[in-house]
User: What shape does this take?
Amino acid sequence: MAQAAAVAKPPAPPRRRRASATPRRLPYLLIAPAALLMLGFIAYPVLSVFYLQNYNPTKPWRNGYAGFDNFVQAFTEDPQFWHTLTFSAKWVFVEVGLQLLFGLALALIVNQTFVGRALGRALVFSPWAVSGVLTSAIWVLLYNSQTGITRYLADMGIGSYGTSWLSDTSTVFPAAVVADLWRGVPFFAILILADLQSVSKDLYEAAEVDGASRSKQFRHITLPHLKDAIVLSTLLRAVWEFNNVDLLYTLTGGGPAGETTTLPLYIANTNVDAHNFGYASALTTVAFVILLFFSMVYLRLSKFGGEGK
Assistant: This one.
């Protein structure tokens, strides 16, 4: 009986061969050279910014580990740092607020149906395609005291000849704001218009049936629907405006008398002109922490992506 049972026992299924690990590792081996190059040429320079160091080619005897000396110098011994940080906050607040206001208005206008709407949209969005340096070059010509706006105003009896808005401390900030508005407003208009076109018209028709006015429709339908688009666009634009270097550098050079020097522009001058790379790295780290903290707090307070409107 035991022999019969042993004979009747079905044979064990054949063992599966273990798949070779080489084919699975092959894609990673192929991209390894490119990854190592990126690590060396991108990751290392970025991470080296956070290294606490003194590095100035003009003073090599002072190069080396600095600890927190650069940060102590920035917060306690460098009044220019606080001035540029204050101006950066002022610049971001004014620019983002005005760009959002005008961008929302333009988006609402070009969202309507009218003759020549396609051409109107193209004209509204075209400044966004212009680079920052070219934008500042255009406005430098417009603000030229000999051939620009001020001369034509003087011809009409408004102001005097030879006036330069970019060299006057009382007018340089509004002049720079207007130049950047021309380029930044289309960014908000594009994002807000894209979100406006996804709003169902049935909501507005139902609101009209219920007797809701245009202002109530805007407040209770349009704005809640645009919440995430507004939060995202203002955050992105705030970060970009904080890091704005090209327009202000070309338009005013940070002047006159440092009146339009933002923190990133001060970092660039410290790095390129003064060759104080270690101190510039410390200032860059401070700017990174400020932007990271602002972004986290802003997204937290705005409840970005939340379902509650």
